[in-house]
Structure formats: structure tokens, C-alpha cells
Structures
1.
Amino acid sequence: MAVENLVWGYIYPNEIEIQWSVLIVLYPYITGLVAGAFIASSLYHVFGKREIKPVARFALLTALSFLLVATMPLLTHLGHPERGIEIMFTPHLTSAMSGFGYIYSFYLIVVVLEIWLSFREDIVKNALKCKGWKKQMYSALALYSYDISGKALHDDEKLAKKLAIIGIPSAAFLHGYVGFIFGGIKANPWWSTPLMPIIFLMSAIVSGIALLILLYIAASKLRKKVLNYETLFSLAHYLWVFLILDVALELLEIISMKYESLEEIEIIDRLLSEKIATTFYGVQLTMGIFIPFVLLILVMVMKNREQLKTLMIAVSSIFVVIGVFAMRWNVVIGGQEISKSLSGTNTYVPVFFSQEGVLPAIIILTIPFIILLVLTYILPPWKDMDEDID
Amino acid sequence: MQPHLKRAFIILVLVIIGFLFVRSFIVPESFGQYGWYRGDSVAELRDIPVGYAGSASCSGINNECHKTTYSIWVDSRHKTVNCETCHGPSEKHVIDTRVMPEPANDTREFCGLCHFKRAARPADFPQIDPETHGENLKCAYCHNPHKPWFL
């Protein structure tokens, strides 16, 4: 399409090309899934919700799988991935982005330690049981220390709990900070709001729990084991609670923008009614929040009929995961489709085959699932799912 | 502390020390000397040989080598486009006239960098739609690049 047809009104020359593509949409999406999965696991590790126990360690592995690819969209977008480490060597502290390397690394250490501590008993048992290269691998993972006496495990659990307590604010910080990067851009009225970090965080938790539900259902089906309905319904309940917080904040932002009606309101109206109308009202609010909200209420009031309720929870989770992606899209792409002149709009047209294209985005989004497959092969969390909750 | 926790702690400390160690020799010594960049780069950039001689070295004050073309160009709409924009860097040619510069870039795409229609350009700036204008001929077939409206 000719570029003239994509532009309405007056835009500045440097706005003709939309710089932050679908890859930058993926970046907050993936970090959000990490933070959400971690917080879901801490429901058991910190808050002692025993009904979450069957998926607690699985959630940690999910968080790690996504955390390992969280930098990939940025590195693919910027090019020259070998220079990525320089953000940690010489961080320029006037930029919000400069903290990313440290926050990310700190959180990675917390997650890895947490996983190591909660799987250590299995690792040591495997190291003693297996032979050949597997024995080497598990011995190395056990750091050649095979003490799994009651006291050692008790100490592990205590430390794991402390780490999880540090982990929650780190997860919140990692993702809240991604929101802060957008919220701190004062030139863009669609981004510049102090609510942004907390909106990002809530949608992160929502998407993380939804993803965990989907993975839990998928893992049970693939392994041909029965689902633990207490766990599933409990996760669904948390999903519903966080969904309410999420929608409250998202609507609060829009409503206060409307009520204040500052000079940017006309362009925001145009953005919402034309540019991102489908993805905002249709996908983000209706599909991603309203339908799951109603379905989850039905799940909570319905008695028995486990199969149907599982299906409803699965559908809600799929919708939530798509809805949160739409939310990231509306923020990242929506914010760039309005001109800084406040009197013109541009249109983002995704391309498929290019460094900034949809194909790399799909590849990047597939990698965490492969990592998760490998991780669950090395550290199987299935035992928790098959045990009864005590 | 349990021995395995001690080992994990030691590994963590080693990783952090390793990071600081690698950082200490990867970050250049002159980094931060003047600002958030490598201080030595200032001297390095200064020492890069000059490639462009500037339009004034083609004719005018110093010599009259390209007098005719220069006098046409200097009054044209293209007077803000330097000789070497199209003819390429010519410092070597100015020093030694036997070294000829590269032939001028006269492709449609090159002219199009400024003159293909773009929404972001001012409406009164001369722009063409390459699909419909000029039958894919080189621009210089009709236009004189030294005096663009001289068809």
C-alpha cells in the first residue's frame, strides 16, 4: 500500500516509519509471562497455598524457559547481539533501559537458585541412581554434594522460601520496570502515565497464570493423567481475581484520560475509535477480559460437571493469553501510530520475512516451549502433579 | 551453612568476580575521559584521512578547473547539493589531478533519495512517482543535474 494511504493528518517526517515493531510487542509479553508464572509459583512457596503445589515447580520451570528468551526480541530488533552485554559494562544511568541488564540478571539468579533448591532432592537421587553421562550431569547439577538428610532439605526449604520472598518484588520490579520504560516517555500521551508499571504488572500476572493453566492442562493430557481439579479451580480463581484488578486499572487509565480531556484527547479518541478499535475493544477488553471474566464466574458457581468447567477454564485462558498480547500490541503499536504533533496518525503494517518481521517473532515465541520441554526432561516436575495434595 | 549451599554461594561469587574481571579489561581505559564514550576515539577520528575536498576546491576562489559547470551549478536549485554528493569523495583528485574520482552516480534510485514521492516531504518540494514519471529512463536523460530545470 502506498505510504500516503497509511497516513492521516499531519505527522512529523521521522514518524513515517514505525520503529518498534511486533518484536517490541513480544518483549513485554514474554517478560510478563515470566513474572506471572513466577508469582503463580510463589502462591505455594511463599503464601503456602497447598492447592497450588502440584504446579508450583512446573511454574518455576516455565518462568525460567521464558526468562531465557526475554532478551531475544530486543537483541533481534537492535541487531548486533554481541553488543548486548555492554548495557551491563557501561550502563548510562540517565536511561531507564540501562537497569535492564542488572534487574534481569538478578532475577535470573533468583529463579535458577529457587529451581535448584526445590529440585535438589530429585537431582541428588538421580545422581546416585543414574549411570554414564546422566550421572555426570546430575552430579554436576548437585555440585557434587549429596546430602539430602532431613536437616539439609529443611535448610533448603527455608532458603527457597526466603528467595521466593525476594523473588516476588524482583518479578514485580522486572515487569513493572518494563511498564516504567513506556510510562516514562513523556512525549507520548498514550504511554506517559504513572499507572503503566502497575497495569503491566497486573496483566503480566494474568497472562502468566493463564499460560500456566494451559500448560498444566496440556501436560496432563499429553501424559494421559487426570487433572487435579482442586489445583485447576484454584488457579482459575486467582486468574479471575487478578483479571478484576487488571481491568480496573486499564479502565481507570482510559476513564481518567477521558475525564481530564487534556489536549491529547482528540488524538486518543481517534486512536481508540479507528486505529486500534478492534484490538482494543474487541480483543483486549471483550475477548481478553469480559468473556473470561463471565466464564470464570460460571466456573465458580457451577457444581460438578468437571469436564465442562475444565473446557471453560481452558477457553478463558486461551482468550486471556491472546487478550494480553493484544494489550501489549495496543500499547506498543498504538502509541506509535499517533503523531507527537497530536494531529495525525500513521499505520503499522507488519511484514513477515524480515529481521523485524512476524516470522522471527513466531520463532522467538516457540523457543521457550522447546526450552521447557528440555527442562522438564532433565528436571521432571510431574511427581508433584500425580501426588495427592496433603 | 550446608556444604552444597556453600558451593552454590561460591559459584555465585565467582560469577560476579568473573563479570567484574571481564568488564575490567573489556571496557576501554579511556572510557569516560570526556563523557559517555571512549576518549581515545576523538584522536582516532581526527586521524582518519580526509576524503571530501568540498565544492570550493572544484572551482571558484582557489582555482578555475571546472569553471563552466561550477558557474551553472552555483546559481541553480541544486546549489545546496555539493559536487561530491554525486561525484563522490575527491580529495585525492584535488591533490593529484591524475587520480580520477569515481564516475558520478546517476541512477534513478540515487536521484530518488531526494525526489521520489514521500508523504513526509514538504508538498512543494519537487517529487515524482517513479512508477509513472520518466519511463524508467535515467533522470539525466532529460534533466541537467547541474541545473535541474534546464531540460
2.
Amino acid sequence: MIGLTYLAAILATLPLVLILVHLIAKGASSLSLAFFTHMPRPVGESGGGMANAIVGTLILIGVASLIGLPIGIGAGLHLAEKRTTPLAYTVRFLSDVLNGLPSIVIGISAWEFLVRPVGHFSALAGGVALGTMMVPLVTRTTEEMLLVVPTSLREAALALGYPKWRTSIAVVLRTALAGIATGALVAVARIAGETAPLLFTAIGNQFWSTSLREPIAALPLQIFAYATGPYDEWHRLAWAGALVLITIILIISIAARFATRSRFGAPVD
Amino acid sequence: MTAPAVQPPESSIAVDKAKPCIVTRDLSAYFGDTAAVRNVSITIPQQAVTAIIGPSGCGKSTLLRCLNRMHETVPGARVEGSVEILGSAIYGDGTNPIAVRRHVGMVFQRPTPFPTMSIRANVAAGLRIAAKKGEISGSTDEIVEEALRRAGLWEEVKDRLSESATAISGGQQQRLCIARALATRPRVILLDEPTASLDPLSTQKVEELVYDLRKTVTVVIVTHNMQQAARISDCTAFLLAGELIEFDSTRELFTAPKDSQTEAYVTGRFG
């Protein structure tokens, strides 16, 4: 039996290893400085890069975080403080439903509310769609991290004469901060590679654009477009794009790990 | 019974002659509809150690938590009756519970150092709030040192004040919490089974500390350890099912209890 668990443990990590090896084998050869600094070339010309898609993805992550983190952390704080109110039960339940909603549904909704009325696709709509996906994740991890903080710490602060709000911020939130940061980074890593919500919102852009009101390029969209295209050159770039995307996500995940570790490390002051 | 580590003071004070510090009248505390403390009227003397003993669930912690208005922080909990500390009614109209808690220190059963703060920041935690109000004089470093010295911890941590408060042992953490409570120079300090989670050696240190504290503050300590109450307290209150059965000088209560239930408890026949 024990032997089988070893086997299962190895099988569980095998896909990631295979994907990484495959991506490096296929994509590394097309990676160069130009990939990061150059724009896509017209069909038929070789070379070119995905500078616009890399920047586009970072902008989309930024917009999504600006929306998802404050709302998610705020909602999580509320759920942890007012655990048993009808509002808290409702929000908690709806968060879980939203968390399970297929990302394509969120994409279509964002299109309905943010693209159709305006008349054109935009980076903002993409960021909102991704941010919407982040909210329930951040809400629930924030709540869980706050609830892990022992009641005795809260009481100790109150007994020192801390007002309730100050107890929540200076003691409870601060103690849970590393865990909340981890949750936030996990949520960012989760949405960084999303494609479906962007198909109807950011749509992609062959040109350089950093405007929130214009369509914007994104790595997952560019990978999709190039991988399904007919040219070998495109396929190679798609592999390289996938490698870059997964590297960004890996870096965020590792950062999340370090955030957790610092929880037991040196104090801030 | 083990030999007491500390002998009770020879001049064990007579309860009725001492200067009063905390006076409760018909104090009742409820969780929802259930009364955990019923009609307790007690006069706790100044600059002495008063122990509250009784079997588990008799309401001793709840009674203690009424003395700094911590009881009401539990949802559904409320208090009836009155409590005066050094002449001021802490449940009076317009009295801010936060201000009450600033003047009455409290230490809990398990050590509760703030894990994100250093040892120094922990001791200064209550200070930051009080200092804003201009209530405490002296520099933070001086006050931190004084509080740690009073808690008997200074020599052990003076070289590692900026280390995490969770890096020291459980017994040291508990004395750190006592230092944190002492830093704001309260007149009263409440201890809720402060040695329940400590090893014997740490327990002895905390007991010696409590014994010394009586010179400067009024101490109320909840304990389920009768020997501990006998060792360190001047007066003892015996609680049963939320009611105050007997309150007397420790010597009197343990050697010549007036109530048969007290006698049964202190001689170990139940509880």
C-alpha cells in the first residue's frame, strides 16, 4: 500500500514535470532578447517577439489586482468579523458559486456589460473580467487566514485597551497578513493564464497598446492565435510564449511560498 | 500536598479592615439567558493578592472578566449590578470600556504575545495607545525596561529585545504578557489561570512574581490550583455555580472555613 502512495505522489507531479520539459524543449530555442523586446512581425517575415503581449498580460494582471484585491480582502475581513449574519452567509455562499463559475461565462458577462454598450473591446473589460475571477478566491482565503488567528490574541489586544477596529487591523489583520499575501498571489497566478474571459473582452492586439480603452494583447491570447495558425514560425513563437507565461506564473507561485515562510521569520519591528 | 514554595505573609491581612480596591454589588453575568455569575458582592482589598477558586465552570473566569469589562466582548454576553474600582463605577453611564481596560491589566491562561511583533514592541503595545493620551511619562525604552524588570524577565531578554516574541519559551512568553500588562502602570492586574499552561519551574517563577507584585498593584488571580491560591494570595474567594460562597483571608478560608461547601472543596472532597 505504501508503495502505491509513492507511485501516486510521483504521478501527481508528473504532468507538471512533463509540461515543463516539453515547453523548454520546444520553446527555449525561440527565446531570445528579441522575443521580449520586439513586436510580432507580419506573416511571412521571420523573427519578431511578443513584447506587446507580455506587457499586455502585466497590465491586465495589474487592473485585475486593483479590482480583485481590495474587494476580496475587504469582503474577507467582513466575513471574518461578522461570521454569522445573514449577509455573511449569503456572501460566503455566493462567493463559492462565483468561484465555481466557468471563466467563459464571466467573459461573456463582461462582454455584455462592458464591451457591447461601449461598442469596442478593451483592456479594461479584460481586467474587470479577470478581477471578478479573483474576488471570490481572495475573499475566502482572507477569511480563512483571519479565522486562523486565535481568539486569544484578539482578546489580549482588547484587554490592553485597543479599540475594536484597531484590534482588527494592528493585531488580527497583521498576524494574518502573510497568509493573505499568499492567497493574493495564488489568485494572481490563477488568473494570469486565463484565456476564455479575454476572448470576449481584451480580444488581443497585433500592435503596441497600453491604453485601457483599446483592445490589448495578452500572452494566452497570442499563444492561442499563434498555436492555431498555419505557420511553423508562429508555432515556435507560441511555444516560447507558453514558456514565458508559465515562468511568470511559477515566479508568482514561488513568491507566494516565500510570503508564507516569512510568517515565521523575523518580526517587522 | 506539596510544600508551599512561598509562605503566605505572616501578617495575613484581615479582609474587612483592608482598604477596598474593587467593590462589586449584586454582580451577575450572563451568556444569553444563562447566568454564569449570580449576585456576587465582594470587596477586594488594595495592594494584595486575591485568589478566586472553585471547580471548573463555576464562573471564576467570568467574574474576573467582569472586572475589566471583557465579559461583554463575547456576543450575547451582558452584565448586571455594579463594579467600582478605586471609587469609579466602571459600568457607570458614559464610562468607556476601552478606558477601563487600559487601567486594568489582564493576563490569560495561555501566553498571548503578538507574533508579528518583537519582544520590545509587545511590551510597548499597550503603551502606544495610552501614551497618545499623555497618561504615561518616560521614554518607551525606559518603560519597557521597567516593565520587564518588574516581570522578572529583563535579564533573560535584554540582549534580544528586537527578536520575535514567539522565539522565547512559554514561561518567558507568559512573563512577557505580564510585562505588557504592567507597562501601562495599571492599578489592578487580573490573572486568569496564568500558570495553567506552564511547567512547574515557570509556574514557580510566575508565582514569585505575583507575590512581589502586591507591593505595587492589586492582583486578582483565578486559579483551579488550591495550593497555588494558598501559596500566593492574601485573600481567597470561593465560587460555586456562579455564587460567591465564602470570601476571607486565605489563611482563614483554608484553615477554618465557615461554610461546609468551602470546607468540602478545600479539603479535596470534590472539584
